[in-house]
Design brief:
Layout (H helix, E strand, L loop, with lengths): L10 H8 L7 H16 L6 H7 L8 H9 L5 H11 L4 E13 L9 E4 L9 E15 L7 E10 L8 H7 L3 H9 L8 E3 L45 H7 L3 E7 L2 E7 L2 E4 L1 H4 L3 E8 L8 E5 L6 H10 L1 H12 L11 H6 L2 H18 L4 H8 L11 H16 L10 H15 L1
Helix pairs in contact: 1-13, 2-3, 5-7, 5-13, 13-15, 15-16
Length: about 425
């Protein structure tokens, strides 16, 4: 129960929220709990005022209290993301996945809005105008699902004209983005690996194939150790394009398991430097083709020199879960719907829903799941005849029903009013629609 508002919070959810209390001051934590519960209970737009309406606090709190929480309150979006990662640290955590996405924005005063390459955009140019985020997710294996689940926990804003202008640079360098996420999400002693998607954001092409990856980010040969005089070289000569590298590489057949299927593909490995992104750290370029013809279908890059071809290909296939997570963040949890303009508010209003998404998934995995959930869903939606496992939308819907029911569970065993019964009935009908 919040101290200054009539908003009951289920004990199973409050246990998770209480672990985030050290990140805030006492007043800010009460505001955070109210906005988080309103965000998770909201069925409409998840704007800042929509969070207040979802928590039934729009008549109790002034709206500027919610806006002030994002623009001026003392809390860090990075610390919130790391704390969300710790919530899933007890689960099986095989890797950290990183990807970029564009949230559409309009207006000259929109913070950090510009034109970016967007693989999901319509048209041949694949460009979109908006704010660009590099998102880190913890990939977990839940016993209730057969697929890996990516839980987004951190989001860094790409700002053109600064050192954070490049998504390729920001992913491994942005204020310890990868290192701190791995430290928070991985059990001690587990090998930490990075799965990173290309700049275009599509599963069929990697960043080496995009024109933005050429020029100063082109791959180079390692520096030669035997230089007669002068300063030692940090990089070698510029290598040809991936297409020319693939033409001279020695492809070998490799058996891989991707997307639930086992198949034989042909792949090769070329050790080189991607100096514009990783400096003098050697990387492996792995061109892949599904048929034994010339050329290649996909070019992958890994910073793990000891990884075999099978590992590299299967890791890349496994990172598809972050694409699903970003889609769920947009469509299920409404990330990006808040329209803020001040610098700090813009930087915080995407990490906040990502943290709520992590809380919702963790709550369902630890307290909310019931074996009959899929059967109940089929009863409400008979068209889903083959549904056997809960979806992210189902997890969010169950938490929403629990939050709504908690509001109408009075402290005294009195009978609910007709209005309260009607509100719950309408909420259930809307979820089933």
């Amino acid at each position: 129960m919040l101290a200054d508002a009539t908003l009951p919070v289920p004990a199973s959810l409050m246990t998770l929220l209480a672990g985030l209390a050290p990140l805030f001051t006492a007043p800010s934590f009460r505001t955070f709990c109210g906005l988080a519960c309103g965000f998770l209970a909201q069925t409409g737009k998840r704007t800042v005022c929509g969070m207040l309406a979802g928590a039934s606090l729009s008549q109790l709190w002034p709206h500027d209290r919610a806006h002030r929480f994002f623009s001026r309150a003392r809390w860090s979006a990075d610390d919130l993301g790391l704390a969300a990662a710790r919530l899933v640290a007890a689960l099986l955590v095989p890797a950290v996945a990183i990807d970029g996405t564009v949230f559409k924005r309009r207006g000259k005063k929109a913070r950090a809005a510009s034109w970016f390459h967007d693989g999901s955009a319509a048209g041949p140019d694949k460009t979109g105008y908006g704010s660009n985020r590099v998102i880190a997710a913890v990939v977990v294996r839940l016993p209730i699902l057969s697929r890996p689940v990516a839980i987004p926990v951190l989001a860094k804003l790409v700002i053109k004209g600064t050192s954070s202008a490049s998504r390729l640079w920001l992913a491994p360098h942005g204020r310890g983005h990868r290192r701190r996420a791995a430290r928070a999400g991985h059990p001690r002693g587990r090998r930490r690996r990075l799965r990173r998607e290309g700049t275009d954001g599509t599963p069929g092409r990697h960043h080496l194939d995009h024109p933005a990856a050429q020029g100063r980010r082109a791959v180079r040969s390692p520096a030669s150790p035997d230089r007669p005089a002068g300063r030692p070289r940090t990089r070698g000569d510029k290598l040809p394009s991936p297409a020319r590298l693939a033409a001279t590489a020695a492809f070998v057949p490799v058996t891989v398991t991707r997307y639930g299927k086992t198949a034989i593909v042909h792949a090769a490995a070329v050790t080189c430097l991607w100096y514009g992104v990783f400096g003098s750290r050697p990387v492996q370029v792995v061109p892949i083709r599904d048929t034994p013809a010339t050329g290649y279908d996909l070019a992958l890059v890994t910073t793990d020199p000891g990884a075999g071809l099978t590992q590299v290909i299967e890791r890349y296939a496994a990172r598809w879960s972050i694409e699903v997570a970003i889609g769920d963040a947009r469509q299920v949890f409404g990330a990006g719907q808040a329209r803020n303009r001040t610098a700090r508010a813009v930087e915080r209003t995407v990490p906040f829903p990502l943290a709520c998404q992590a809380i919702a998934t963790t709550w369902y995995a630890t307290a909310g799941h019931h074996p009959a959930d899929a059967e109940d869903h089929r009863a409400r939606a008979p068209r889903h005849t083959t549904k056997a496992q809960p979806s992210t939308a189902g997890m969010a819907a169950k938490l929403r029903r629990v939050l709504i029911a908690a509001r109408f569970r009075p402290p005294q065993p009195d009978q609910p009013t007709l209005e309260e019964i009607n509100v719950i009935r309408l909420a259930r009908e809307e979820l089933a629609a």
